[in-house]
Amino acid sequence: MPMTQEPNIEAITVDQLRDKVRALREQGMRLVQISATRLPDAMELTYSFDLNDCLTNLRLFLPGEDTVLPSISEIFGCAILYENEIHDLFDVRVDGLTVDFKGNLYTTSVKYPFGSTKSPCPTPEPAPAANP
Amino acid sequence: MSRTVIPFGPQHPVLPEPVHLDLVVEDEKVIEARPSIGFIHRGLEKLVEKKDYVEFVYVAERVCGICSFIHGQTYCQAIETIMDVKVPPRALYLRTVWGELSRIHSHLLWLGLMADAMGFESLFMHAWRVREKILNIVEATTGGRVIFGSCKIGGVRRDIEADMIKSILKDLDGIEKDMRDITKVFMDDHSVKARMCGVGVLSKQDAYDLGCVGPMLRASGVAQDMRRLGYAAFSDIPVEPVVRTEGDSYARCAVRCEELFQSVQIIREAFGKIPGGEIAVKVTGNPNGETITRTEQPRGEVIYHIKANATKNLQRFRVRTPTFANLPAMLSVLPGCDLADVPIIVLTIDPCISCTER
Known about the structure:
The complex is a heterodimer of chains A (132) and B (358).
Chain A (H helix, E strand, L loop, with lengths): L8 E3 L5 H10 L3 E9 L4 E9 L2 E9 L6 E2 L8 H12 L3 E2 L37
Parallel strand pairs in A: 1-4, 5-6
Antiparallel strand pairs in A: 2-3, 3-4
Chain B lengths: L2 E6 L11 E7 L2 E8 L19 H6 L6 H16 L5 H29 L3 H22 L8 E2 L2 E2 L5 H27 L1 H7 L7 H6 L4 H5 L30 H25 L14 E10 L2 E10 L6 E5 L1 H12 L8 H7 L4 H5 L1
Antiparallel strand pairs in B: 1-2, 2-3, 4-5, 6-7, 7-8
Helix pairs in contact in B: 2-3, 3-4, 3-9, 3-11, 4-5, 5-9
């Protein structure tokens, strides 16, 4: 059984996303998560797939505020929740969603609570507690 | 025939937590289910910017009120992977025991809720009566009943002494007998079977394609269980996934029933093999790196994606909970079912909405 939990991440471009995901689907992989991280100058997206308990990850960067993320929901139907979530929390425009909640998946009191792509990345307040 | 839209939730007697479905029905047949979630989004992932990585163990444990321990454990495992911390073997065994106690009490809670949804009140009370005995063990060993608070980065906070182990093993004999009685009713009772057999059938291919996890996936014939990755003491205690092939609500119930006894067996084996020694190592410095860690919650695979940049605040903390992964499958099996079966089908994914919305 595989013991490692270190991520095995392949960097790709936005244009390659759908072809890469389609190829993984044809290998029999399942989509296990899509994770977004807001960096100071870009949005980082990590797609994780599993086959026989081994993870394969794809990583891409969305550089500007107008960049559109192509949806993979035609390839993996369950991607709709991840992609709608990324839109609602991070203000990332997703193109080609098979089910688009149009910003209504999450009912949050603050719009785009994890930071909009159209506003500068806030500097987090440092934690008050000291480390061990 | 004209169509009617019936709102189901977010507040509904059968739902312990808020999720809303607009059910499009023709007569009493469901044609379509449109979901709305997000009523209790708490933004816990964002809180990582305010809390340092050590404090954040407490937040991770509070992602869910049922499987709190395994959330804390998964978070600690992720940080330990990044910082290359070698956790003492005894602590790994103790984590395994608490994780399995957590699974038993979660499954018993679910069985009680399912009995309640079917109107079988005495069965509901029996299931929760037995669950109480598990919670008593948890309280005796950790001091908590819902939030265990016993996992920390580098090990665990509390040990379980030999006398206590003996007492727990004795209690487990009685609990196992009680669980046999309860699960026999769930598996054999005519009215229970009439409510669950053939209801909400999910094929093996659909379960896999829709990204299902946990009992929902295993009940459709896919042998997947993250404990086989060998985290905690599972490299010494092999786990064979409990699998059924029917894919219906009865099969999902059967998988959970059988997993109760599997967990008791794992606890016995863990106590039989538990090594002596330290229960924690000191951890210093700040994490720097990235990891994706997976464990098996009672509801299925949970994923923690953590990024750290050598400061005391993590750069990203992302959790994909099992219920989040099971929602698409729930929506796919609702069309075609009777309106009266909707509560049963919704419950068989064991929905935990607050941990889904984090």
